[in-house]
Amino acid sequence: MPDKLNFLNYSKLFFLLFIFAVTFYVNRTSTVRNIQLGEMQSMAEDYFFVGTNLYITGKMFYNNDKIPYVFRPPGYIFFIALVEKLASINNGKDFLFTSKEGADKFAHIAKSAIYLSQCLLLSLSACILFLWASLF
After folding, report:
1. What does pTM read for this prediction?
2. What pLDDT, in 10s, does the model give residues 96-112?
């Protein structure tokens, strides 16, 4: 067995795992303790509502709205809809909630999945940046 792997040697692999773990831990801790990605006085809630609407109905705007949400970059909205689809939240059923508790439960599960996905995406981005920087 060769001493070095083709692209990664063992020290790079160690640092790569270390960077992933530290980035994930800091991001998850900040998200849970500081509620960093939580409600922001109507500045960011639209992303969640529009992303969930995209997941449920396949449309980026509500039924009665004639103007799509052009002031919101669509990338994050698609990310939210994709995470909800991959997490199979409610499996596409029972979106008409009979109570506020049912809607709140859905929102809590969906936001937890979104926050976890953001932590993973940030950690993977840090790893990619490390690998790119290590080439120089």
Report:
1. 0.71
2. 566 777 777 777 788 88
